[in-house]
């Protein structure tokens, strides 16, 4: 009886095995299930490609926005145009992928093998197109590297540059306040600082409104101008003290020149008494000219003092420069009379010293001109020969009852200058060779 009961059970267990192993197809699945799995794998691959392309496009859009925020060059505009063209290709490839996904329900029961195969083909084609566009997008991204690097560098400079400008303005304002507390008005510096106010407003509005390049340029300009205001403000007390010192110094010098100019007339009297007219006639107006120059200098000093009291620093500085020039010319004129008398006394006492000094200069130049040569260069020999003749004529003027010593001195000086030019020419030519 146990044997009879077991037989139906064995038959029941053997039946599916017979269909699975020896039949023509599987009871569940078969070829359609294999096609469904391949289509699903193609769908997953296409989805991954779509996601990668979408992510790359988003990242690249940020790069393009970075470039356009900074750069308006033809290369940057071309990059924007090329990115837009790539965007259209991405849209086309994405639409092809979405259409292929929407056209086939791979989870539907009883999916035919032919439908699954067609779905797989369309999804593979969509994935391949997404991959191709992604490759083009990657190449385009690589080509943007120089533009992007330049843009990122400028953006990295933006915030520090704006902050430096703000700090420079604050430092200039503090320096100006400190100067005012010391009693100096510094109105011109205050006006220059106030003129930077609108620039600070634009800096605070940001690069989004005015552009990165313009904001950078503005920040650097504000920093420079504010630093200049600060430097001048910090130096203003020293400048005021310097002007005060120059007022006192030039006033003392003017007084001293007044005293010295009074001594010119006795010098001229001696020159007139002992030497010929040619030796002193160019100096006879020195006393009047010196007195007039000192008078003008004193007037400019009063004007400079008034400018200093009004804290008109540029005017005070300019007036003091004028005073200095007037006193310098007066000093030279007053000194010329005494120097003339000294030189004339020396040559009258011993003219040979001046003659020997000049002849030595000529002979030294002649030796240099003949060094390493058998005949002199005419360009050098002629002016040296002329100098010898000119010196002889100057010596001849010393003969007579009232020699023109001043003419003699000016002639010997001119001869030495001519000889010095020849020597310089020789050395320059030999140095170049």
From TrEMBL:
Residues 1-20 form the signal peptide. Keywords: Coiled coil, Signal. Residues 116-143 form a coiled coil. This is TPM domain-containing protein.
């Amino acid at each position: 009886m146990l044997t009879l009961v077991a037989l139906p059970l064995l038959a029941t267990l053997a039946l599916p095995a017979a269909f699975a192993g020896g039949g023509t197809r599987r009871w569940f699945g078969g070829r359609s299930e294999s096609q469904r799995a391949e289509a699903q794998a193609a769908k997953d691959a296409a989805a991954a490609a779509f996601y990668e392309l979408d992510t790359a496009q988003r990242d690249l859009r940020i790069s393009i926005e970075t470039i356009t925020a900074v750069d308006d060059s033809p290369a940057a505009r071309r990059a924007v145009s090329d990115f837009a063209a790539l965007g259209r290709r991405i849209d086309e490839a994405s639409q092809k992928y979405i259409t292929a996904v929407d056209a086939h329900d791979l989870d539907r029961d009883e999916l035919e093998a032919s439908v699954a195969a067609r779905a797989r083909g369309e999804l593979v084609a969509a994935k391949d197109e997404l991959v191709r566009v992604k490759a083009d997008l990657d190449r385009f991204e690589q080509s943007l590297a120089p533009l992007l690097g330049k843009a990122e560098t400028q953006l990295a400079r933006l915030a520090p540059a704006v902050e430096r400008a703000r700090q420079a303005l604050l430092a200039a304002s503090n320096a100006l306040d400190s100067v005012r507390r010391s009693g100096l008005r510094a109105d011109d510096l205050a006006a220059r600082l106030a003129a930077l106010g609108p620039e600070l407003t634009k800096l605070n509005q940001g690069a989004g409104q005015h552009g990165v390049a313009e904001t950078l340029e503005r920040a650097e300009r504000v920093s420079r101008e504010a630093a200049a205001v600060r430097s001048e403000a910090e130096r203003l007390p020293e400048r005021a003290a310097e002007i005060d010192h120059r007022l006192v110094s030039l006033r003392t010098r003017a007084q001293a020149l007044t005293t010295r100019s009074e001594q010119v007339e006795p010098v001229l009297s001696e020159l007139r008494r002992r030497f010929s007219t040619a030796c002193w006639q160019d100096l006879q107006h020195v006393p009047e000219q010196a007195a007039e120059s000192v008078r003008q200098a004193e007037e400019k000093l009063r004007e400079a003092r008034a400018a200093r009291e009004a804290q008109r620093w540029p005017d005070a500085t300019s007036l003091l420069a004028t005073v200095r020039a007037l006193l310098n010319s007066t000093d030279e004129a007053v000194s010329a009379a005494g120097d003339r008398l000294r030189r004339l006394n020396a040559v009258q006492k011993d003219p040979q010293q001046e003659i020997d000094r000049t002849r030595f200069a000529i002979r030294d130049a002649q030796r240099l001109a003949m060094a390493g040569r058998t005949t002199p260069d005419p360009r050098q020999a002629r002016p040296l020969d002329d100098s010898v003749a000119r010196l002889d004529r100057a010596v001849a003027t010393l003969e007579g009852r009232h020699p023109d010593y001043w003419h003699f001195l000016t002639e010997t000086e001119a001869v030495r200058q001519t000889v010095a030019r020849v020597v310089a020419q020789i050395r320059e030519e030999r140095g170049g060779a």
